Description:
The chain has 122 residues and is mainly α. It has 5 helices and no strands.
Amino acid sequence: xxxxxxxxxxxxxxxxxxxxxxxxxxxxxxxxxxxxxxxxxxxxxxxxxxxxxxxxxxxxxxxxxxxxxxxxxxxxxxxxxxxxxxxxxxxxxxxxxxxxxxxxxxxxxxxxxxxxxxxxxx
Length: 122
């Protein structure tokens, strides 16, 4: 991969990182703000349906937060691989990752064949 292509992927990853950090900040600010609701201290006098809705909402926020954190970790790992010169190479077999795959998932660290093998093992 030439320096121009590498620079393009670095820019995309940095933008993705900024977007994910903003999303994470928003999710966590809404979770902190409504803590009294998910603890059951809300204006509904602890009605089961309302508590269930508050619990569902809290679990949904936690799930979103975990997903964003996971993607952010993958993006940060890809940026490190750019810096150490291993970006674009499969971490399992060492072959170059298909450019089409990197265009879709710029943070991927597996070629399509090793990704398929990983999914079969689940």
